[in-house]
Design a protein that fits this description.
CATH architecture of the largest domain: 3-Layer(aba) Sandwich
Shape: globular
Distance between the termini: 30 Å
Strand order of the largest sheet: 5-6-7-3-8-9
CATH superfamily of the largest domain: P-loop containing nucleotide triphosphate hydrolases
Number of strands: 13
Strand content: 25-35%
CATH class of the largest domain: Alpha Beta
Structural class: alpha/beta
Helix content: 25-40%
CATH topology of the largest domain: Rossmann fold
Amino acid sequence: MDVQNIYKSYGNLEVLRGVSMHCAPGEMVGLLGANGAGKTTLFKIIFGLIQPDSGTVTLPQHHAKPLGGIIEKPGLYEYLSAAENIKLFAGLQGIKATTAFVNECLLQVGLDAKRKDPVSRFSMGMKQRLAIAIALLNQPAVLVLDEPFNGLDPVGVAALRDLILELCEEKKLAIILSSHITEELAKCCHRLYVLKGGEMIHSGPTQDILSTHTIGYALYGKGISSAQALKNYSFKIRGQMVWVAIDSDKISKLLQDLLIEGISVESCIPDYSMKELFEI
């Protein structure tokens, strides 16, 4: 999928200014932006729901359904069961929804095909999975997911992330993933786009962009608060966690020094400067 030089205005309000992005088969790209950055407008243009003032969106033409996805929130019939939702949306797309087909659609996203209760009783994570199953009907080439982690607990976020990664790697889908959770984009996206005020202010390999804007790391490990190696840096102690102000190119040296002291770091979590990333 290729988006080139998209402009969109409403009256005197410029919502998108020269926005371009690309996503290849088997690739997941992340779209990061604050509220009002223009993400939802961009997605609606990609889906053909609104027309840009100028620019082009090129979708793969070798699939019966080039594009599937979720914008803003899952659009489900909550008084119906998961299977009934699949049958309804399949019928709208001209698909013969046999019981075997419906069961396969549900199982591929980790839902119990035997459940008969209405979707209104589902957790948010289950609703997101069902919405993805519906988006995958007719095997699209590109999957667009707008804030799929919203409303999920940490277990739900991890489970949904694993599902999305599996779809990308095994089905070779091109996936565009929007999220305000930077850490999740870091874990699964090959490349990252940062949208601010309708303009792409950063684009490139995810780790390259995030490492440039890393201001420190949270280190967890037994006895780490007394480590001598920390005295070369500015740090704060919070129980068995230490936050260290350190650049990404120096963290490996600190971890080696801690290991020499006999301190095993159980986790090392980067901390990104949103102020610098969004050039505030």
